[in-house]
Amino acid sequence: MSPTSRPLRKLGFLTIGLFDETDPRRGHESTLEIIELGERLGFDSAWVRHRHLQYGISSPVAVLSAASQRTSRIELGTAVIPLGWENPLRLAEDLATVDLLSGGRLNPGVSVGPPMHFDQIKDALYPDTADAEDFGYARVERLLDFVRGKPATDFSGVEGFEVFSDRVQPHSPGLGRRMWYGGGSLRSARWAGEHGMNLLTSSVVKAEDPDGPQGFAEIQLSHIRAFRAVHPDGEAARVSQGLVVIPTDSATPQQRARYEEYAALRLPRTTSPQGPARLLFAPDLVGTSDEIAERLHAHAAFREVDEVAFALPFSFEHEDYVQILTDMATKLGPALGRTRAA
Asked: What GO molecular functions are on record for this protein (predicted)?
């Protein structure tokens, strides 16, 4: 381990949960089986992506509710729920319910911004209020307030035979400290820190400052440091890194060839910022666990974190994920200095 690296404390993974339109149950079952495998292998956390009007998990809270009943230890996260599709009060109720059912293992990650392809779906999503909806940080603040137990109404008490609460019920006391923000810009990192959230970083950042750091790792490092500089917990504030990592220790030659081809097809987008938003992507890491560990220890942002949620590639087969997760847990984790969870 590099002497400048933080010891790796939590090893997690992230999956998109793809499914075939003709057999969606099988895809969802595959995701649940992968989460169960993650617990058996000793992973600390399993995270699911969120996709609307696509062939991936559209209801991660429901999927994680099912996962909570098939597991007993592994933490369960969302990376991330786009709040533009959600009512914060209703989402707070769902999150608290699943957190209680899981025994306090839920780690909800969220993001803001207009829903993707908003002009095409706004009439279905917000037929009467599309022009009035606020898709900024205020939406997260509402969710945080409800999750953390602030009043949602000025009415409470007994009415007839019914009892009413002025705050969201059920209330899960520890959930407020396990709320994550998925940020890829300096502004979002600072905002998350100022509001006492945890920070989810991924394989995408905004190269927004022409006078600032230019490489992916250096940009991501600047976000992490800006986040911790304003967070109430300072250097102890939680940050999780979500690079795409594909260890090949036990892969077949055919699997290795497919993994390398996948990474090669995605490599051109990592050489320069993409599009008007100047998005910069990290290269996928493919190789033996020792090779990947060496590259991570040289990664400036990785050296600043002690939690990871390595992203599984979108389009691989169930058997590929089993091999990748097994190598992550048994080979890559130890190579990064992490001790398997009990």
From this structure: monooxygenase activity; oxidoreductase activity, acting on paired donors, with incorporation or reduction of molecular oxygen
- Residue 132's Cβ-count burial label (10 Å; 0-12, 13-18, 19+) is exposed
Phi-psi region of 199 (alpha: psi -120 to 50; beta: other; left: phi over 0): beta
Q: What is the pLDDT of residues 271-321, one digit of tens each?
A: 999 999 999 999 999 999 999 999 999 999 999 999 999 999 989 999 999
Q: Residues 267, 268, 269, CA angle at the centre, nearest 5°?
A: 90
Instruction: Give the model confidence (pLDDT) of 188-247 as tens digits.
Output: 999 999 999 999 999 999 998 888 788 999 999 999 999 999 999 999 999 999 999 999
H or E, element range at 12: strand 10-15
CATH superfamily of 10-155+163-179+245-268+281-335: Luciferase-like domain (3.20.20.30)
Residue 19 CB coordination number (10 Å) = 19
SS3 246: strand
How far is residue 175's CA from residue 146's CA, in Å, rounded to a whole number? Answer: 11
- DSSP states of 159-209: ETTEEE-SS-SS--TTGGGG-EEE--SHHHHHHHHHTT-EEEE-SEEE---
The residues, ordered by sequence, that sit 6+ positions from 261 with a Cβ below 8 Å of its Cβ are none
The residue length of the chain stands at 342
Work out the number of other CB atoms within 10 angstroms of the CB of residue 215: 14
Tokens of 279: 């998005």
Q: Residue 243, Cα to own-chain centre: how many angstroms?
A: 11
Q: Where are the domains of the chain?
A: 10-155+163-179+245-268+281-335
Instruction: State which amino acid sits at residue 246.
Output: I
Summarised one tens digit per residue, pLDDT across range 77-89 is: 999 999 999 999 9
Give Cα separations from 133 to 52, 113, 126, 216 (angstroms): 18, 11, 8, 33
